[in-house]
Amino acid sequence: MKLTEAKQQFISSWGSFGTHWGINRTMAQIHALLLVSADPLTQDDIMEELNISRGNTNMNIRELINWGLVERVILPGERKEYFTAEKDIWKVVKLIVKERKKRELEPMLQLLDKLEGVEGDKKDKNVKTFIDTISGIKKLGKQADKTLDMMIKAEESWFVGNLIKFFK
Amino acid sequence: MKLTEAKQQFISSWGSFGTHWGINRTMAQIHALLLVSADPLTQDDIMEELNISRGNTNMNIRELINWGLVERVILPGERKEYFTAEKDIWKVVKLIVKERKKRELEPMLQLLDKLEGVEGDKKDKNVKTFIDTISGIKKLGKQADKTLDMMIKAEESWFVGNLIKFFK
DNA sequence: ACATACTTTCAAAAAGTTTTGAAAATTCAA
DNA sequence: TTGAATTTTCAAAACTTTTTGAAAGTATGT
Question: Per-residue pLDDT for B147 more than 80?
Answer without folding.
Answer: yes
